[in-house]
TrEMBL record:
InterPro entries: RelE/ParE_toxin (IPR007712), RelE/ParE_toxin_dom_sf (IPR035093), Toxin_YafQ-like (IPR004386). Signal peptide: none annotated. One of its GO terms (biological process) is translational termination. The lineage of its organism: Bacteria, Pseudomonadati, Campylobacterota, Epsilonproteobacteria, Campylobacterales. Keywords: Toxin-antitoxin system. This is Uncharacterized protein HI0711. It comes from Helicobacter pylori (strain B8). Belongs to the RelE toxin family. YafQ subfamily.
Amino acid sequence: MREKRLWVLKLNLKKSFQKDFDKLLLNGFDDSVLKEVILRKKEPLDPQFQDHALKGKWKPYRECHIKPDILLVYLVKDDELILLRLGSHSELFCKSPTQFITLKPTAQPTTPLF
């Protein structure tokens, strides 16, 4: 019988993610679901998380739903899991010029979180 090998990803928390996370914790956010999502393995997420690729200025990043209006923006690059943002849809995708983030494009195609 062949053993299934799980690839563990190196976690890279961007400053913007850490600020978002700290803000949510101060507001009573239960991070247990987030921990379930970021197990750092290259396996598909459960469909309940609605994982999908982003378009436009957010390409090549991906997004998944931690809770109905708490979204995680991330990228898997090689063996690294980059967590970029965490928050509500309006907080993350607001058209306000003060909230634009310069995203560095990558030549590699996006890979689902798991």
